[in-house]
Amino acid sequence: MSLWTYSEDLGLALELLGKGRELAERMGVELAAVVLGCGVDARAEELAHYGASKVYVVDHANLASFTAEPYASALAALARKHGPDAILVGATKRGNEVAARLAAKLDVGCVTNCTGVDVDPDTKLLLFSRLAYGGSAISTQRCKAKPQVATVPPRTFERAPRTERRAEVVKEAVEVEEPKVKVLDFKKKELKGARLEEADVVVVAGRGFRRREDVAMLEELARLLGGVVGYTRPLAYDLKWADRWVGMSGVVVKPRLYVGVGVSGAIQHVAGIRDSKVIVAVNRDPDAPIFKVADYGIVGDLYTVVPELVKKLKERAK
Amino acid sequence: MSKVCVCVKYSLDVSEIRIDPSTRQPVTVGVKRKVSDFDKNAVEEAVRLKERLGWTVTALTYGPDEAKSALREALAMGADEAVLVTDPGYAQSDTLVTSLFLAEAIKRVGPFNLILLGEASVDGYTYQVGPRLAERLGLPQVTHVRRLEVKDGEVVAERDLEDGYELVSVKMPVVVTVTKEINEPRYPKLMDIMKASKKPIKTMTAADLGIPEGKRGAAGSGIEVLRALAPEMKRKEHIIKGKEPADAAAELIELLGKEGVVR
């Protein structure tokens, strides 16, 4: 009887252990972490100090670079051997593709990108919530068979605190598929300034902006508010003004203050800002859906409103 | 001759979903359906292989009879043949069932050198069908691809991951899921739309695919949806209208100061 957690991302692995501790207690099962890779002794040793009873380690040459087939096969082999009740995987893009492949191998359901995990008090099964209908609703789902497989995005739960108590580290010699996909190169994305997901204040540029250079005024607004600038998907993808965007399919943000400027408020964008403490919108169109989910807003042309906001903030700072 | 299979989902147009304020349930009745955005990119990529390398393109969907319109769109964009896999349990199917129907159809219509899909669907966003399909077919998977090259029996692909772009290569056959950025899907010409409307669409059922009752629809699904409700958004909706920009800005900053989010 056990609940497993796995993520290739250390921070996310700790978040899963944080929530996992609570869930495992309520389920009445043991908490374990899984470590996969090649030369991962140090990682296993570190993870042993965050509340798990066991750390299962598969250290294998086929896991030297991260590709879905060997990683999913290692997890599946471990799961077949020990029969966990549930497996929580970190919902990075890599985590999601491994979880889906794992669930296919085990012929079970899988709930990706959960925003919440709960325990059914009667059955002790996990209940997962996730966005549905393109972000317009939150659906509560249950896996019918064990292991219950689900993925949880970064910053959904608090990290587990480090403890002196050390989990038992169990090295497992299971079969791992040969990698078929060769990784040739990796180009890191240039992430300018503070990271969107950690920013206290996020100011987002939407389609109301006509030219890329106009976003400079938003940079100034963001600086005065102590935050960073983000983009909506159309600007990032269609116009290629940025590598990443704020929204359900991009970066989900939960800042103290969100300001959407020229952002219409499409469902998939709103789903990515919903947990912001205060939501502010500036838009020319009084019927823009963003106003329905905003605390404060100005109906007006961003090209005149933003400079005024900048001016007022500067006066205030004096 | 090389063949590519492109899987398309006949998705809900989520921008049309409204919430019933009394029940907080999303209303999907009467909501338009369309080819899921990223699947359209997959079709475009497949058609480009046809144009550049003379490949044959098969469009495949799992859905109700009306999903034929998604296939017609793929045919109008340039697909050569189209297959509808249909089952009354379609609407209750999760990714486990969907991938089973697609995989069984592909085994019968194929073999294919390449199977293309969108990275996710615009209504479900599970990111699961591509990887599950790959596993069921015993093929490798390359997900979130924003650039794809095909040569010498191999694909070279650039993946869009959170922290960077990963370049990979793999021998075909392979399952590839694509992002919106990979291309700009074409708008079919009226002539092509008319031609597509006359092309035959092959239909396959669970019986044709040898999928037993217990593996279909809700019974075959690995997950059970208990409820789906719109989140309660308790926002102040204090919107400043009809004021001079300077006054509006001053009022907003004042309000944000009171909220404690502006120094």
Provide structural commentary.
The complex is a heterodimer of chains A (318) and B (263). Chain A has 318 residues and is an alpha/beta fold. Chain A contains eight helices and 16 strands. Chain A has helices at 10-27, 41-47, 68-82, 93-106, 216-225, 233-238, 267-270, 302-317; strands at residues 2-6, 30-37, 54-59, 86-90, 110-111, 114-119, 126-132, 137-143, 148-152, 168-171, 182-188, 201-205, 228-231, 257-261, 278-283, 296-299. In chain A, the strands form three sheets. A seven-stranded parallel β-sheet of chain A has the order 5-9-4-1-2-3-10, with helices on both faces. In chain A, α3 crosses α4 and α5 (216-225) packs parallel to α8. Chain A is elongated, with a radius of gyration of 22 Å. Chain B is an alpha/beta fold and 263 residues long. Chain B contains eight helices and 15 strands. Chain B has helices at residues 37-53, 68-77, 95-109, 129-137, 190-198, 206-209, 217-220, 245-259, and strands at 3-7, 10-12, 18-19, 26-27, 33-35, 56-62, 81-86, 114-118, 141-151, 154-160, 164-171, 174-178, 202-205, 223-229, 238-240. In chain B, the strands form three sheets. Chain B has a nine-stranded mixed β-sheet, sandwiched between helices. The N and C termini of chain B lie far apart (67 Å). At the A-B interface, α3, α4, β5, β7 and β8 of A face α3, α4, β9, β11 and β14 of B.
